[in-house]
Each structure stands twice: as C-alpha cells, then as structure tokens.
Amino acid sequence: MDRAPWKILILLQIIGLTLSSREYVLDSENIFTECLNPPPGSKPFNHLVDISRFTTKKDKDGIHISGNLTTTWDIGPTDRIEINVAILKLDRGNWKPTALAVNVKDFCKEMYDTNTLYYPYSIKYISNKQDVKDKCFNHKGTLILVDPFVLKVVLSVAVPLGPGPHRVVVKLVAYNTDGVPNPTSICMEVPGKVV
C-alpha cells in the first residue's frame, strides 16, 4: 500500500494546526536554480522542461508567471517519478535541514490531487490538465499550457522555520518498471527568505 497520500494528509493537518503564517519570498524571478550539492548524474530544471516560452517577472505582488513549458526529460513513458522535497535553513554559515520534508513515491499518480502541498503552486494553473494528465513528465515533447498567475508562497507551519535564508531542494528520480532508476535525475532549488 502506498503511504505517500497519508503522509501528505498528516503533514497538511499539522500545518493546519498552526496559528501563524510566514511568507517565503523567492530570491529570483527565475524561481529555480541549480542545486548547490547535486547528486551524481543529476541535471538542472531546464532538463525537465524547455522554458524558452515561459516568462516570470518579479514585483511587489510576487512573481508573475505565464507561457508554456515543453517536457524535455528523456525517460520512459511508464517510468514512475519519485519526488523528494526538503527545506534547508542557513544557520551560522551552514545549510541545515529543517523538519519539513516530503517524499512522493509516484508524483504522476498524485499530481492532480488538490490536497497536496504543491498543487496551489504548480498544477492548479495548468490550463490543459486533461491533455497532459496521462503524460506527466514521462513523454518528451508534451506541451504544458500555464494560465497567467502571481506566485506568492505563504507557509502556515507548525514547525518553526524562523526568518532568514532558506532553500527548497527538489529532487526527481524516474524508476522503470523493474525499479531501476534512470541514470539522469533532476535536481533544482528554490532559494528564498522566510519573512
């Protein structure tokens, strides 16, 4: 039995218990940067999708996003994509893990679940959801149309993150039907500050 949905639901419940909210202000309008310590064989965000027709512009309201993406990751159409997300905090010159980390064993299976943590910041604004639902990131060349929206990340967390520099580290690994990982994984970061 896949326990990822339960982990996410429990995490959402914990988050819902808090009385305070903090904003995560992204450092750059580019949103994603290369990982500081990438795993061997990993590639940055632009190996997941082509961003040449995707625009981001930062202002006081947040990051304005529009355009489209085309999948470029060369993996098998039946591969299972596992995602690991962790938040690190800069503490006395060193990046240290926080208690906030999520592992999703089968992202493509769960990407349209409106109860996930990432849905409001990603999948929600794909206008051709039905066209790409069965393709996920597994079919190279899939066009993903993004409705214009303003990205502003507000965190309500029971775990104290504290103000200051943070990094959200996102790692994607594809596994074939035999459970063998693809030699090329994706690693990207979203640097910012908790205020």
UniProtKB/TrEMBL annotation:
Alphabetic keyword roster: Signal
Key word Signal present: yes
Superkingdom of source: Eukaryota
Signal sequence range: 1-20
InterPro entries the UniProt entry points to: Uncharacterised_DM11_DROME
Protein's recorded name: Uncharacterized protein
